[in-house]
Structure formats: structure tokens, C-alpha cells
Amino acid sequence: MKRGTRSARWAAVSAVSAVTALGAVVALVLWASGRPGPSAGADLADVRRTASAPSATATPTVPTPAPSPSLPQPRARDASLGSLQVSPAPAPTRLVISGIDVDARVDDVGVEDDGAMVIPAAPTSVGWYRYGSAPSDARGNTVIAGHVATREDGPGALAALRGAAPGMRVTVTTADGRDHDYEVVGRRAIVKKALPVDEIFARDGRPLLVLITCGGEYLPELRSHRDNIVVTAAPVG
User: Fold this and answer.
1) How distant is the alpha carbon of residue 209 from its chain centre?
2) Is 180 helix (H, G, I), strand (E, B) or coil?
3) What is the radius of gyration, based on Cα positions, of the chain?
4) What digits encode the pLDDT tens for the residues 14-53?
5) Residue 87 Cα distances to 55, 92, 130, 173, angstroms
6) Which of 31, 120, 158, 195 is least enclosed, having the fewest CB within 10 Å?
7) What residues does 227 pair with on adjacent strands?
8) Rounded to two decimals, what is the model's pTM?
9) Torsions phi, psi of 139, nearest 5?
């Protein structure tokens, strides 16, 4: 692994962990109706171990962002923003999970100057981490994240992600018009401080889709939810 790789992944997760900044009314509604249920299906690490693939070259990283109060401090060295490499594969443009009524536009997103992953402001859109893998890539995780809600607009595109169940079909459409079909194999509600960062942003191993939003108890003092909902889906067909 190249120096600074963990920094890029922690930078991306810093934004993922802060995708929700809600007012009190929205927070209480979502806390009551959107608390994550029990985990279901396989864990991401277990899914990655079920098949092997040649290791991909680790992606260079970006400057370490200021630590979020809900996350541990990154432990890696810095690297330059200019060293990041965008996947050359067609970018995702649409995410559909019919079983939970998710139908969202996907924007390809990068990083802020401080190294934090950009999350689309509009709650109806979600962001694909373009410095990771894409659906057409032969290995690594395609990572898509979005708001669970915003103060101005209420529930976001991924508010229902806590209801994703093993066996549900997920379709990601890419810019070339191709539909990439996946099947949900696992869902986890993970305390943000315990996120498996290396597993989520892996560039090696079998190709997988990883979807992330906030969930769990809303903590007013942090203006954030305690957990992240992490859904893993494997390609089908």
C-alpha cells in the first residue's frame, strides 16, 4: 500500500460520516421512524473474502482533513490532490432499488481542498466516489453515498436504505447507457467510529457495490447520527 492511502479513505469517510446535518424536527422524525433495524445478511469483509482477485494498485491520497468530532483522527501521511486518479470507466448516473422505492440521480464527486469527499447538496441526488472503482471495473468497490435527510428538504434519496434486505435487486445505470444489476447481500448499522474504512474503499478483490448513508440515534451535540448504514451488493447476471 502506498504512503497516504489510508488518509484518502479516511478523508472520504469523514464526509460520508457527516452527510446529515438536520434540524431538530427532521431529526426527531427520522430517529423515530428510521432507526436502523438489526443487521442482515453477510458482512462486507466476509463478502470480499468469498472470492479473490489480483491486487489493484493502491490509489494515492489527499491531504488529511480536520478530524470530525465523531471520528478517530487519521493516522496516515499527506499526499497531493493532483496525485488522485479518476476511474476511466463510465460513471454511474442513476441508482434504483425498487424494493425500497429508491430512484436517485448519481453525481460523480471528488474531494474538497481539505480532502473530504463531496456529497451532493440536493437530497434527491447521491454521490459516486470517482477516485474509487466504477461498475464496469473488474475489481474493487463502487462506493455511492448520500444524505439521509437535510434540514431544508427533509428525507433524502437514501432515507429508506435501512430497509434494504438481502435478495433485493439494485440497478446502477452508467453514462454509456448500460444497466449494472446487483443483489443486496448484507446490511450493517455501524457506529461511525468503527467503520471498516479499508474494506469500504477497497480497490482490490471482487467487484462490489457499497451504499452508505447515516442512521441510528441523532446526536444533537454533534449534529450527526451515531451510525452509518452500510449496504453491500454483489453483481448478478
Assistant:
1) 9
2) strand
3) 16
4) 555 544 333 333 444 344 334 445 588 778 888 888 754 4
5) 16, 11, 6, 16
6) 31
7) 191, 215
8) 0.73
9) -155, 160
Half-sphere exposure of 86 (CA within 13 A, CB side): 11
Q: Specify whether the CB–CB gap between 128 and 109 falls below 8 A.
A: yes
Give backbone dihedrals phi and psi of 206, rounded to 5 degrees, phi first. Answer: -60, 150
Dig out the grid coordinates for 184 from the structure.
443486496
Is the CB of residue 184 less than 8 Å from the CB of residue 231? yes
In angstroms, how far is CA 91 from the centroid of its own chain?
A: 15
Residue with cell 473474502: 49
Count Cα atoms within 13 angstroms, Cβ side, for 219: 16
The DSSP bridge pattern shows strands 169-174 and 102-109 to be unpaired
Helices (H), the chain: 5-17, 24-33, 44-49, 197-200
Strand partners, 228: 190, 214
Across-strand partners of 95? 104, 172
Report the C-alpha gap between 96 and 211 in whole angstroms: 12
Residue 182, all three cell numbers: 446487483
